[in-house]
Structures are given as C-alpha cells and as structure tokens.
User: What shape does this take?
Amino acid sequence: MKNKKIREIILGKALDPMQSETRHSMALVAFLAWVGLGADGLSSSAYGPEETFRALGAHTHLGLYMALATAVTVFIIALAYNQVIELFPTGGGGYRVATKLVGPYLGLVSGCALILDYVLTIAISIASGVDALASFLPLGFQPYKLWAEAFFIALLIVMNLRGLKEAIQILLPIFLGFVATHLVLIVYGIVAHASNLPQLVPSTITETKELAQHIGWAGVAGMLLLAYSQGGGTYTGLEAVSNNVNLLAEPRVRTGKMTMFYMALSLAITAGGIILLYLLWNAQPVAGETLNATTFRSIIASMGLGGEVLNHVVLAVVLAFEAGLLFVAANTGFLGGPSVLSNMASDSWVPHQFRYLSTRLVTQNGILVMGVAALAILFWTGGQVTLLVVLYSISVFLTFAISLFGLCLYWWRHRKDERWVRRFLLSLTGFVICAGILAILLVERFTQGGWATALIIAAIAGLCIFIRNHYRETKRAIQSVDQVFEDQPFGPVKESVDPEREAQTAVFIVGTSRGGGLHALLWVLRMFPGHFKNFLFVNARTVDAHAYGGEGALEKMRENAAETLEFFVDFCQSHGMASASYIGFGTDAVEEVTRMCEQINSEYPNSIFFTSKLIFASDNWFTRLLHNQAALAVQRRLHLEGLQMVILPMKV
Assistant: This one.
C-alpha cells in the first residue's frame, strides 16, 4: 500500500482550501465551539476546585467564600475577554491584544506564555483524566498511568491531524455526558443537604471570626488569597474563544460572545457547585482518589439506587465522563496552541512553517509540536497534577494580566467613547484580580514549580527573539536585492507577444520577491543569449493559517499574486519577449508547483525550469529549519519526472 493511501486512511481525504464551501463546513457554530473550546474551561472543575479546597487545610468552612468568589471571577474574566473578541475578530486573543495594545515584546511574552499554557492544557487534562479513571481502578494501576497518558496524547494527535470538526464531533457525546451527570449530582447533592443551607452562612461567619481571633484577620485574608490563587486553574480555558475566533461561524463576534456565555455559565455552576458539595458533604482526601470521586461516591450512595455494585457502576460512569471531558479539554490545546504559533509565525517570532496547513487544513506542524511538548512535560513532572496546576496557572494568569492591562490602556486612550468608563473599570477589575493571583502564585509557589514556568517562558522568548532577528536580516538582504533590480527599465514594445508551443521555453518559478524573479530572468538572458523564445512565470501561493482564517485574506492573496505575475509578464513583453503566467493555490507549495510544471511541460515540451534559492554565508541546520527547502524539493520531483530544472543561487 502506497504511503499516500495510508496517510489518507489515517488522516482522511484532502480538502480544497479555495472552495468557499470548505471554510463554511469547517467553521464552528456556538454550540460546537462550546464543546471544542469551552471544554478546557469546564474540565478545570475536575482539578481547580479540589486544589482550592485542599489549600484551605482544616479550615474547610472558608469554602463558601471560595465557591462564591469562583463564580464571580469566572464572569468577570469572561466579560472582560468579550472585549477581546470585539476588538480582534480574526483571532489571536491574548497575543494579539498584547502586541497591538501594549507592544511587540510584551506580546511576545504573552505568546510564549500562551504556548506553554496550551502545552500544559494537554498535559494537565490528560493527567487529570487518567487520575479520574484510576480512581475506580486498583492501586496497582498507578505505575502505568504515564504510559496511559502517552497513549491518549498520541490518539488526540491523530484525531486533530484529521481535522478540527471531525475531532469535536467524535468527542461531543462525552461532553454532553459530563454536563448531564455532573449537573444531576450537583443539584441532588445540594438539595439532599438543603436543610443545612440556612445555617451555612451564619456558621461560616461565626467560624471565620473564631479563626480570626487565633491568627488575625490578616492571616484569614492570606489563607483565602492563597486558596483562591491555588485554584487559579479553574479559570484557565476562558481565553480559548478569543484566541480562536477565526475558527467560528459568521458572524464571528456574535458567535464568540455566545460561546463565551455558555462557557462562563457552565463553569460557574460546575466549579462553584463542586466546592459547595465538598463543604456540604464534608469531603476528605482518600489515597488513590480525587476529591471529586470521594464526594460523588458519597452522593451516589445516598441516592438509594440499589446495591453497592450498582453504585460502583454509576460512579464509574460519572468518572469516565469526567475523564472523557478532560480528554476533550486536552483537545483545546491542539486547537489553540497551533493557532498561537501561526499568529507568531506571521510576525516571524517562530519558523514560518507553523503557518502552513496540511491537506486537511490544520496546522500540522503546530499539532505535532504541541503533542511532543506535552509528552515531554508529562514525563518530566511524572504526571503530578498539583505541580502541573502551578505551572499552568502561572502561565495562564501572566497572559490574562498582560491582556487586561492592554484593554485598560485601550479604553484610557479612547475616553471619547461613551462606553469607556464601564469597559475600563471592568478591564481594571479583571487586571487587579489576575495580577494579584499571579503575584501570589509566584511568591508562594516559586520553589514548587513557579521557577520552572518563568525559566521556560524566558527560554522560549529568547529563542523567538533570535529567530526574528534572523528573519529581519534576511528580509533586509532580500529588499536590497529588490532595490538593485527595481529600477530595471521597461522596454518600448506596447503589443503583447504570445508564446509558441514548440519554441524553447524558460519557465521561472517565482515568489513574492520581484528582485528574485528579475535576478533569475536576467541571469538566464545573460547565460543563454537568444536561446529562449518563451518566458513563462509560475507562482504557487501557500494557503496558510493566516490566509485561510482571516476575513478576505484569500481574495487579497489572489490579487497580490496576480499583480506580481503581471509585472513579470509586462516586463518581458515590453522587451518583445513572448510571455505568459500561471498561478496556483494549495496547502503544499511543492505539490502545487510540481503539478503546474508538469502541466506546462505538456503544453510546451521544450521547457527548462528555473528558480532562485537563498544562499547564506553560514549554512547550517538552523537556517534550513527557518527557510523551507522548496527549491530543492521541486527540483528532485521534476528530475524524477524527467524534467530539467536549474537552481540559481542568490546570496544574502
């Protein structure tokens, strides 16, 4: 079986990016976006509330404050991020906000934090999911958890390489099962102890006063703040919609806001409700079990469904849905992470290859990088959820704080807008909350993983700066070549000359650089004077994530490509040379160029193909990584087909 056929079986048939129906069929309506992007936020109820409750220690009565604070914080952050959706309807979220409203370098920090955030989304969701499954398995399963986590990550990689919507539709029943089972347990768990609710507030206040007499009000406040910040993982995932607005169905802003509302409401009810359940049912840690599993076991036992076996089966179903939702949430990392990488690639912070789409119109390179990085972090941390939550929360709240600071600056600069006071205060409130949580986490958890987060983000940022500087130098060198050739005079001929089928034909594979194309043309005219009669120009544009996701970006790309080719054809015909052009679009430039060259050769059998290739003074693996070797790949493919191709060096 050929490799192409095997790839098609695993990943599915190729999609045509130029068909408008393809974009429409892949775009997510609010409900599917809630499943695909909102699962990250909702799933955090599997570990965020537990971390908050555990941080209270023996003073569990403070859990009532945490339940209320959690629900309120969810809505504050969600409402603040609705502004991001309004201001940046083409996606990019925290990275775009920081870059445009604060500055490119804070944008870089935000982008690096987001990349780490999405890697940790995958790692922590898979680790928590396996923990949930392990809660109703024998303790002997514990040593095999890491390998189970690696298996699930590999499975999600394949699903996402098949395409966005296919992965979400497969995971939809799991998502709905989680919502249904947990809603029933939360409602029943609260109603079953409804008699305790009237006394809950007065008793909480009394116990808080008694605690304050022993450790002081400052001590109580510190304890609450630490527990509040330790549960910061609860709010992760709320930025996923703003980061991926480009994936949503039109009208994007409205769809994004509706998705955010679904996320905020479901997360506030679930996370706040679970903390309340811990409090009402006096949850106590049990070895080998999550706090959710322990609490749900007690609730199910009180329902009177039947014998112990049936109760165990029901608990297994509930925890299976919880684990399943965590796997759905891990999928958010495979959606959001590649999206952030593609946005950063547009600004040359990371290799441009991260913008390229596969035949299934997903950013394949980004998906693979996110999956491998998540595996590395899982094996490094041993899958310890508590440590992962610290790493995760710091990276998320760093992005939150920078983004909300950017929104504060935006509304302060737009004080003429009648909405500015309300929006500014909302953004400022969100910024104070997020910056406060970030500061507490860094101070209190610095030696317990906080240092690692700071080091990883700094290392990624340093590498990004190095990459961007290289791209800048290369761009300046190419612009200097363009300047050399931009003054090449056009000839006096006004009439067009059509190419002849049997004449000797020079075919130039050109890109966006006019200087590079003219360099190749003039080189051929000088080396083969009078030999070629036809001069054809081929341009294959790569439909990448930036072009495919942006509104009107494909049409703009068509216009730019047509304008570039028209320049070359007009230049040749003004000198009396027969000329024509060919344009193609696809996700793989090599495939598209090869196809067009074979087509041209069938029309003009006496063709020789030419293109330019950047030559660096110090060629190494790093430059080869940052600059695709398309010229060499095309040459190899054409030589295998018996066609002649010459690569002309262009030193930079």
User: Anything to note?
Assistant: Residues 488-651 form a domain with the Rossmann fold fold (CATH 3.40.50.620).
